[in-house]
Specification:
Elements: E1 6-7, E2 11-13, E3 19-21, E4 29-30, E5 41-44, E6 47-50, E7 55-56, E8 58-63, E9 77-82, H1 96-99, E10 109-110, H2 113-122, E11 127-130, H3 139-151, E12 155-160, H4 166-173, E13 178-182, H5 188-195, H6 199-212, E14 216-223, H7 231-245, E15 251-255, H8 270-283, E16 288-291, H9 296-299, E17 301-302, E18 309-314, E19 317-321, E20 352-354
Helix pairs in contact: 2-3, 7-8
Length: 359
């Protein structure tokens, strides 16, 4: 098993003796022995290291739709894993037990990149997802896993908030095949006051992935009542998406449930999700979805040309499939944007935890 501490390449020394981490826009400035806000990157022996290489909060085979990705190998299983910590400070975090953890005990599982790639093959997974917490912060581990997976014909999927600097962004997404990026809101005040981050840095990542890579990208916005769900904000967000990304980037609007430091806010009504989906479609987004709810109408995929149901979904379970072998509508032959096999996968909604035996 490889060491759980590795040197990183994104840092530089400051005149006052501190070292600045250059992975993300937070730019943590550390003295010997200090950790960054993300918890997993720290200064040791006068360099920045990743302290959690090869360690994870758990491994699980999920449906790819859970990431969520609706236009990337639908119906197939994906081997999912994460570590601990995060470089954002979202008060509404839905995975706070992992992303906000500052306890090494959370990282009880371990696996080398080669073990993960082999496990993906053995379990019939078409891809591996770097998820649960943000893979940006375990950059080196994610890249090594992606390289091992590529050697085995396994795709790599990033589920990320996109809060990363330019150079590591280029390296990271250069190793990915698909990504779901959180566009958490469309105001700087939300990002700063609730996430401790900045909107423009996230928009820069989204623009980069869309226009300078071949990564298949989908967006997700978790709608929090009274915080980022106004009609005005959603209209501005969707207009920006269409103008800057085009109409074919799928956008998922997901339901919030009370968690972490925002337990005083109620769940997102289904009516809000439907409103957001309608706003997106009116703005020109061809594939807008509702998430975290059972809503077959809002979860299914339709031909933007003739309206045919192309992929029917009930949560994570696929129903009717009306795409031909070339990913085109069987009624009008209009192509559907995305990455598709000739036939859908049959994994369904199963969730299968995995355990690795250390070698």
């Amino acid at each position: 098993m490889q060491t759980d501490v590795v040197s990183t390449g994104y840092w530089h020394e400051l005149q006052d003796g501190r070292i600045q981490c250059d992975l993300c826009p937070r730019a943590c400035k550390l003295r010997e022995g200090q950790q960054g806000l993300c918890f997993v990157r720290a200064r040791q022996d006068d360099e920045i290291v990743l302290t959690t290489y090869g360690r994870s909060s758990g491994f699980c085979v999920d449906p790819i739709e859970k990431k969520p990705l609706n236009h990337f190998l639908p119906g197939t299983p994906v081997l999912s894993f994460g570590t601990a910590g995060c470089n954002l400070a979202c008060k509404f975090c839905q995975n706070w037990d992992m992303s906000k953890s500052r306890e090494m005990d959370t990282l009880a599982a371990s696996a080398s990149p080669g073990m993960l790639a082999s496990a993906a093959v053995q379990t019939g997974c078409r891809s591996v997802a770097y998820t649960y917490n943000d893979p940006i912060i375990f950059h080196e581990y994610a890249l090594d896993v992606a390289a091992a997976c590529r050697d085995q014909g396994i795709k790599s999927v990033a589920v990320t908030a996109g809060y990363v600097c330019d150079a590591p962004r280029r390296e990271f997404f250069g190793a990915m095949d698909a990504a779901n990026i959180d566009l958490k809101a469309f105001t700087e005040s939300f990002y700063w006051e609730i996430c401790g981050a900045h909107l423009q840095d996230v928009l820069d990542t989204i623009l980069y992935v869309r226009h300078e890579t071949n990564v298949w990208m989908e967006l997700t916005t978790l709608l929090i009542p009274g915080k980022n769900d106004s009609q005005q904000e959603l209209e501005a967000m969707c207009s920006w998406v269409v103008e800057n990304l085009g109409p074919d980037v799928p956008h998922h609007f997901s339901a919030f449930h009370p968690d972490w430091k925002m337990r005083d806010i109620g769940r997102t009504p289904i009516e809000t999700l439907t409103m957001a989906r309608n706003i997106a479609r009116k703005a020109g987004i061809r594939h807008a979805y509702t998430g975290n709810v059972h809503d077959s109408l809002g979860g299914s995929t339709y031909c933007h040309n003739c309206g045919e149901t192309l992929i029917e979904r009930d949560h994570y379970v696929l129903g009717r499939w009306n795409l031909n072998d070339y990913g085109r509508c069987t009624r009008c032959t209009m192509p559907l944007a995305g990455v598709f096999d000739a036939t859908p996968g049959t994994w369904g909604a199963r969730r299968q935890p995995l355990r690795f035996v250390e070698q």
